[in-house]
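Lay summary. Proteins are chains of building blocks that fold into shapes, and those shapes determine what they do. In this project we predict the shape from the chain. Here is one chain we studied, written as its sequence of building blocks.
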Amino acid sequence: MERKIIIDCRTETKRMTTYENNEAVELRVEERSEHAKAGNIYSGRVQKVLPGMQAAFVDIGGEKNGFIHRDDLPSYQEAKLAQGGEQHKPISAFVKEGDSLLVQVVKEQEGGKGARLTGMLSIPGSCLVFLPEASHIAVSKKMSRAEKEKWRTFGQSLVKGKDGVIFRTASVERTEEELHHEFHGLVERYRLLVQQAEKEKAPVLLYDEEDVLSKLVRDYAFERNTEIIVDDPLQYRRLLQLAEPFPSLKARISLHKGRMSLSAFYEVDAVWEKALQPHVWLKNGASLKIDHTEAMTVIDVNTDKFTGKKSRRETVLQTNVIAAKEIAQQLRLRGIGGMIVVDFITMNEEEDQRTVKQEFAKWLARDRTTTVLHGFTRMGVFEMTRKKERRSLLQNQTESCAACGGTGRLLSAATVSEQASHEMMTYQYQDYDALWIEASAEVFDYLQADIEKLEAATRLRIFLTKVATRGEHSYHIRQFGTVTEIQERIQRER
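And here is the predicted shape, written in a compact code that computers can read:
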């Protein structure tokens, strides 16, 4: 397989397009975000402990506090290990308000939710990932059985005390001496983080996940079939510096010098534009429809123009097999993560469902991102999850239409009131007593009818007022605070 990575640096935001065997497989843009990126490490400050959820809110310096569960605390895992795998102490036995805590972002802030955090840190390298205080040695699933055994044995001699390590696929072609050198470099990086955390007052950023160029070099340092082409001389020189320790990769980095722009030469713009469209045509005339919600991504498979020349069963199976391959490619191309539901064309035979699942698994095996296939449900839809490492391409490149979110339809008043209720539920453990919500007339009526249940469920005093709109059903949470603060503000604005 030949891989070509095109990096467009001529605009304010770097844009990376990866081709494998001349087919676009991954699109990535360097995000201009003030939010904590996945992989960042902070010295945070515990703001609030939530015994009912066995979790805590941690200030990491952003507009929203991060969230950490008891099971993601090293102190809890250590106590659990000491008890032979059993540990039932509450989170308050391990952290308290005001404590400083080393944490890493697992899932970035999204919508009204703060970042998901873990205290089980990971320091990534090209071949290894260092796991401080993890007592765990793991190897890539892509290694052979003999290779796995070899590197597990080597790992036991490499790590000391309670630490752990992961051997990435690239480890296979490295010598023990090279891996030993990389491992101790990662340990030293961690030691410096801890040292900085002891000196500086929390919250403070200790480790910033690398930009797109640094991560690119780290991930492809030992991939012999990868060519990197960049269009900016300054970034070209920086790439060469980053690749200095990896001569074989450095030799495959080049600067585009043609009169035609790099994007135009490789027709990159068309690829990006197409990847934002909800419809994807399959080679046999069938199609996919990709819809995004806050909770999940839903993919619908349709026969459309394809009727087939065989029996209905064979036609459906053929279409679903083709769709499985395309869906695997689209998930990677568009950076879609989280819960994914696929509505394949209905198959009545379990044998056909197994065939489609096997085909799906085969194509997903090429994806560097972790995926878990849960299979077909009783309702006949296919459920899976894909690790959400960053915002999807759609989230990064677009913003919602103010009126309809780009769907061409307005949500009903009942649906909008349900959304309002669900959002208010997410604030039940926040550090305030009341909230004020404004709603359009029909949404107001639905919420007013359920106000007592909502207050009981959220443990908040809810102030609800009606506001005129231009026809769309909507709501807006105006303020959080004490009962007195909100009462006084409503009185002032009347």
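What the prediction tells us: The two ends are 67 Å apart (CA to CA).
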